[in-house]
Structures are given as C-alpha cells and as structure tokens.
Amino acid sequence: MIDGYSEEYNKALETALNNARLIRAANSMVKVSGQRVILPLAGREIEIVYYSAPSQNAPLIIGFHGGGFLYGGCALDDTLWPEITRRLDVNVAAIGYRQSPSYTWRDSLADSYESALYLASHPEDFGFDPEHISVMGQSAGGNLALCVSLMAARDRSFRPDNQILVYPLLDLYTDPADKGWGTFSGIRTRVMNDLHCAEPDRKEPFASPFYATDEMLTGLPNTIMVFSENDNLTKEGRIFEERLRLAGINVSEIFNPGMPHGFLECGFKKRVSYIEKEFLGENCDELINKGALKEAAINTINFIKKEFIR
Fold first, then answer.
1. CA neighbor of 163 nearest in space, from 177, 142, 179
2. Which domains occur in the chain, in start order?
3. Average pLDDT along the chain, 310 residues, taken 10 residues at a time
4. Which residue, of 37, 170, 224, 274, has the fewest CB within 10 Å?
5. Number of H helices and number of E strands within the chain?
C-alpha cells in the first residue's frame, strides 16, 4: 500500500498496473495491417506502425494513441488508422511512445516530438509529402499531439498543417473528481495522472497544455477538435478551444451527442476489451450492437476530412 492513499486507490493502482502489463504484451504480439518500423532516436529505439496512403506522395498524419499515458499502444488502433488512411487519403505513422509507470511525461513527450522530427526529416524513407504533415491524437494522445505542435512552434522546426485533437486530456492539474461526470472519470483516472506526472509539474505547459500562455498558442496550426457528450474532458477542451480562437487560430469542432470517451478508437472494432469497456461506460454494448459507435466514428472522420488542410 502506498502511504497516504486509500485502500480504494491502491486497489485501483494495482489493477491499472496489471492491465497495463497485459496491454503491453498484446501491443507487441498483435498482427497489424500496417508496417512495424523502428525509429533510431538518440539513445533509444521507438517503434511505430506505418500505414501507407492509397495515393503516392500523400500527406502524413503523425498519430498518438490514447490510454492515459499508461494503456494503449502503437499497434492497438489498427481499425482506426486504416480508416483514416483510406478516407482521408493520407499516410499515418502511429507512434509507440514510452509510458508510465516506468517513464514520465518528459519521456512520452520527448519520444513524440523526436519521432515527429525524425519523420519530417526522412520523407524519402516512407514516401509521404514532406510539405504536408499533420498531428493527431486521442485523449492522452491529443495532449501529446498538441504539445508536439507547441514545441515545433517554439523551435521553428516544422509547422503542421493540422492538429486533430480528439477529446484531448489537457489539464493534469485539476483533480479528475472536480471535472464532473463522464466516462473518463473516477479514481482510475487519478491513478493514471499520478503515474504520468508528479504534482509539481502539473501546470507545466508541456505536461498540461491547458496552461500554455497566450503567446505559445499564436504559432499553432489549423485545429480540428472532437468532443463527446458523456466525457468529463469536454469542458476543458471547450475552454481551450475558445483560447485558440482568441489567439487567432482557425478552429473547427464536432460534438457527438450520447457518445462516450474513446468512441472513435472503438467505433470500427468488432469487439472491445473489458478494459476499453470501463472507459466506454455501462451502455457500451448497446452502442456497439446498435451501430451507434461506428456511425459516430464515420461522421467524425468525414468531418475531419472536410476541415483538413492539405
């Protein structure tokens, strides 16, 4: 038991760590329709899964999976990324960034940003158009996609055409219990936040981009935001969206009534795991069986396609 935490918290922590181990194992073994590639970054190797566009020299989307920085993996959205590739006619590089509990927010961000830099400087190895690169992420991945854009603007290293932020987790400082009801609420969310980022760093803009300064926002690209009704991250996303508009950034959004957090990743799956069901909510079986999850996912991708700059 961790000193100072409740028995409920420690039980949730133990469950989370056990589930994370199972997910890591699945990520390494599952068959993918894309190509597993190793990026040789400084002092480490990062795995990505690369999905090729139908057309030659198409744009690239650098994708960051969700999972609260603890769950998920570059190979586990193998139903979503092919749909993005096909419907938008883009290449996708799904990034396998380092995760908690062994690593912290600085490691996840370093992997995400340096992978983006590597890809941007090696277009000939992958066959995408180097003039048209975008970033996209769901939940924790939305956090990383936005932070990559912020770092790229700061360093003037490259400028994405688009950042696609799907129910992004932007604020690690505010206690999840204070964010209201939603399928991404509960003590498990606090566990994931604690493992990813220590309290003193939780207002650091590259950990919690919700606290980025107005000046930092001015260099950001065309922004496409995706929200779901039954998600307690929608409020912080909407506040941040308004800040982007005030900073002069072009922003478009789609709001999905009745949808839970995680609907886009799961919308094309024939079955979802019990871990995913925890975040989709109690009525997830009904949403899946009726095809509502898939319908919302298709509508969302069509909206992204309409607002996507290429």
1. 142
2. 7-307 (3.40.50.1820)
3. 70 95 96 98 97 97 98 97 98 98 98 98 98 98 98 96 98 94 89 96 98 97 98 97 98 97 94 86 89 97 98
4. 274
5. 12, 8
